[in-house]
Design goal:
Blueprint lengths: L5 H7 L4 H10 L5 H11 L20 H13 L5 H13 L5 H93 L2 H9 L23 E7 L5 E7 L4 H11 L8 E6 L2 E3 L17 E8 L1
Helix pairs in contact: 1-2, 2-3, 3-6
């Protein structure tokens, strides 16, 4: 059965002549498969439908071959009878294809094109799957980065709130201390004139000059306004600092939270070893002086 040329095959399959000529020219007229591959790869090129101008002397569709073959009978005119018979056979093989043969060949080519298109779709599907994998992986990495940044921001915010809470508590405590000092100063100021008047009122009742009580005021107990506190931590190490006598025990607890090695979030309690006494939440609001922790004391940190 005679075969159609590449250009004729593409035209029979319904391709535009301009595109078919470009496909044949750009593949070097190497066959229908290469031409179809070129058409499928370049079907979306912006210049695919621009008019094709073949180079001078270049004939598409196998016409050059037919011209060169046409010269052979002229050269064989001088040959013997056997050569003439060969030419007749060759000429018979160049007879035009019938419509049925054309349809059969076009059918084969269309089937080949369907196979090529299926392969191309499968290749594009695999590439799309791979691109989707890359997008998902990048999305997960981006989500992890965002989550880490969010966690860091939340941690910073929590630390800032904890510091603000401690600072507010310390400020309230300073106000309480000032009020307590003012009260103590007022008590000392208004109570300072009482003893002389009392002593004067009792002087007539004590005529004996040799009485021990008349030899000056009794010794006063020394008042301490500071307390040196040593705290033994959970791991056996100690920290020591000085607090005001009117500061509450809560100030010691805050100091341990900020300067000790207690894990964050772990609750603990304070106690005195000798005599053993566990301080409650109510004790936390009491001054160190009232709790008997002045001028110095040793406290122990224990787990709740």
């Amino acid at each position: 059965m005679a075969e159609l040329t590449t250009l004729e095959s593409l035209l029979e399959m319904g391709f535009d002549r301009n595109r078919a000529e470009k496909a044949v020219a750009n593949t070097g007229n190497q066959g229908i498969e290469q031409a179809m591959d070129w058409l499928m790869e370049h079907e979306n090129d912006p210049d695919i439908d621009e008019p094709y101008v073949p180079p001078v002397g270049n004939v598409l569709g196998g016409e050059a071959d037919s011209q060169s073959n046409a010269e052979q009978p002229t050269l064989a005119d001088t040959a013997e009878g056997g050569d003439i018979g060969y030419n007749e056979t060759d000429e018979s093989s160049k007879q035009p294809m019938t419509e049925e043969e054309k349809r059969e060949q076009v059918k084969r080519l269309e089937e080949l094109m369907r196979v090529k298109q299926a392969e191309r779709r499968e290749r594009e599907r695999a590439e799309e799957v791979e691109r989707e994998k890359v997008r998902r992986r990048q999305g997960q990495e981006l989500q992890q980065i965002r989550q880490k940044l969010q966690d860091d921001d939340m941690k910073k915010l929590a630390d800032q709130r904890r510091r603000e809470k401690m600072e507010d508590k310390m400020a309230r405590q300073r106000v309480k201390e000032k009020i307590a000092r003012d009260r103590e100063e007022r008590a000392q100021k208004f109570g300072g004139g009482g003893p002389p008047s009392t002593a004067a009122s009792f002087q007539p009742a004590q005529p004996s000059p040799s009485s021990p009580t008349s030899q000056g005021p009794p010794p006063t107990k020394k008042e301490y306004d500071e307390s040196r506190i040593q705290v033994r931590l959970l791991d056996g190490s100690t920290i020591t600092t000085v607090f005001k006598a009117q500061e509450p025990l809560a100030a010691v607890r805050v100091y341990v939270q900020m300067n000790g090695n207690t894990p964050e979030g772990q609750d603990f309690m304070l106690l005195s070893p000798y005599p053993r006494h566990v301080y409650t939440e109510l004790d936390m609001e009491k001054p160190l002086k009232e709790l008997g922790l002045v001028p110095s004391a040793v406290l122990v940190v224990a787990k709740k």
